[in-house]
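Hi R.,

Here's the chain you asked about this morning:
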Amino acid sequence: MDSYIENKTFDEIDIGDTASVEQMLTQKDIQLFAVMSGDVNPAHLDEEYARSDMFHEIIAHGMWGGSLISTVLGTRLPGPGTIYLGQTFRFLKPVAIGDMITARVTVKEKDEKRKRLILTCVCLNQNGKEVITGEAEVIAPTKKVKRKRIRLPEIEFIKEECPHHHRAICMAEGAQPLKTAIVHPADALSLKGAVEAAEVGLIEAVLVGPEDKIRKVADEENIDISSYEIVPTPHSHAAAEMAVRMVREGRVEALMKGKLHTDELMRAVVDKEKGLRTGRRMSHISMIDIPKFPRPLFVTDAAININPNLSAKADIVQNAIDLFAAIGLGTPRVALISAVETVNQDIPSTLDATALCKMAERGQITGALLDGPLAFDNALSEEAAAIKGIRSQVAGRADILVMPDLESGNVLLKQLVLLSGAQMAGIVMGAQAPIILTSRSSGAIARKASCALAVLLVRGHDYAKKGDNSDMEYHQEAIPKTVKGGR
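And the predicted structure, written out as tokens:
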């Protein structure tokens, strides 16, 4: 490509002059045009729909080819300084991915008085067939312009696929669906999330809450709930109590949070007489799928335990380790997060981290390699750990981040979601049944992944091991057979 663009002035242009550009249509071109224009017609973006359409494949937006004509006029003939006045188009053939399109303009008329040009326009495919024809009217520049060609930025698409979440969903395929009480699904997000998870066979949804509200949401959002059992309750508080009772009676195997506050649901779960307590502290574990980060990142606890003591933290750590193992990821590296990576008596979380490492050495916490205290940067960045002179099998390569308290964990999760485009799947462990607990802003994939975590947890290791998970067990060779805490 030329490093400069230069125009032809009105006086330099003769009738019959021509210029062209050539470009192959790619999937990225279609996506960029859709982003820019807002035209998300499924004929251009949805392969399944496109196969059933008249052209049987994804095709370009018609104006994508039209934009190539604009490119010729603005950069070649007449070039910089041209003012577009009008354009006609006839779209003769579709343009498919891989087609090489040549856009050509030819000067048809000159208006000396008004310095205007009429140009015939045509786009040809690689077979020489016309796909677009038309005519353009422009005011041609009268002054010579030669400018260095502006280098455009590289545009990178961040896929919303969430590979780590998809992997968890795939590992749960084939397992018996988990009978799950959806607690107060009285809004579109929670009801859709439950139905979508049920449709892919992850859960068997039982809708618990005010029936009139649930049906109203279903009608408004065009969600078919005719095949789902509804257990009516007068309000969200009663829905939480009923769902917990259903677990105790063996009627369901898991709970899923709907439109109610976490505190309201957990109040019923932790009730000493009617709740779902076990001998272990309950805690929330998030599996975070972060664009460009090479592995799923687990964060705990950002939803249940406000300011846990040492005993509670030991259970929080063990819950996260057990979930990691249940989904077939092997032996995790656990970073005990604080503000600093050295022990400081004025920072209680550093003292807790040290004690937790010693507990792991003594077998009070099992199944992982622990280290701490570690700051956030040297827990995930090997470079940061090296700069600080930290020698550790955890530093720079942590799989699980144990936050010092709910406040810091919650802030971290929201930063990852809002600033890094992360998706968060979440589950509460330590109760008699897993509790699927996601953020109200979680997308469909994150909600399905949360259900998959519950399935793998309840159904056991067989489903987690059934596929080729070698790409997930990326670091196992570096962890010794005897797992110890500390550095």
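The longest strand covers residues 100-111.

Let me know if you need anything else.
M.
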